[in-house]
Amino acid sequence: MEISVQMYSVRESLATDVQATVQRLVELGLTHAEPYHLLEYRDELVRAREQFPIDFPSAHQSFLGEVDFPAVLEAAQAVGVQYLVDPFWNPEDWTDAEKVRALADTLNQRAAEAAEAGIRVGYHNHHFELASQLGGRTALEVFAEALDPQVVLEVDTYWAAVGGAEVPALLGRLGERVQLVHLKDGDLSTDPAAQLPLGTGAMPLAETLQAASGAAYGVIEFDDYAGDMFEGIAASVAHLRSVL
């Protein structure tokens, strides 16, 4: 598993100066990062790849709704993205099995289009996809069952735990479809400000990493953090390196 970081964590710095933000991530020893709003940041990310020893193997961009998908794929190719991940879908739809399967059909269609560009697509969960039970299974697992083999999942392990999942067992059931995991820690509440550097909260990190050993990238993320964000990322990088 390679270590990456979700750039949403440093969104305030990113909004001020993309290149300086990327430089700070590189100075923390990171060689991979996961951008968001790919269309918005396309040109700056291309510049960053040219200027710094970093790449962007995965990226977040909404594409399951109405969007110019060819433009999204062009941006992904330009930035060097291998895994294009939709980060969010309407929570209410995850309570309806028919809507969950329809969403899977849409993602499968996108996967076929993306395959022509050499890109794999996937979905990133929050807590509600796990909190919703459909026929005795989580909505996320109902969704996964309807996906084509080339579609990946990026399991946000923290939000999955907040949603009530036993994360190592969930990862085991989802198997090789999980090519990316979001790694964060905290008190397992829905309050993003309660998130903490890896190894300092309530997440069963060792068991989670073992269950996710087949994933290509472990992506550090803070939705929010009470301390200095770059220091929090540095602490998470150091801890993750010590246990991988």
From TrEMBL:
Q: Which domain of life is it from?
A: Bacteria
Q: What Gene3D superfamilies does the entry give?
A: Divalent-metal-dependent TIM barrel enzymes
Q: Name one GO molecular function term.
A: isomerase activity
User: What InterPro entries does this protein's entry cite?
Assistant: IolE/XylAMocC-like, Xyl_isomerase-like_sf, Xyl_isomerase-like_TIM-brl
Q: Which UniProt keywords apply?
A: Carbohydrate metabolism, Isomerase
Cite the Pfam families for this sequence: AP_endonuc_2
Q: Where is the Xylose isomerase-like TIM barrel domain?
A: 72-220
**Protein's name in the database:** Xylose isomerase
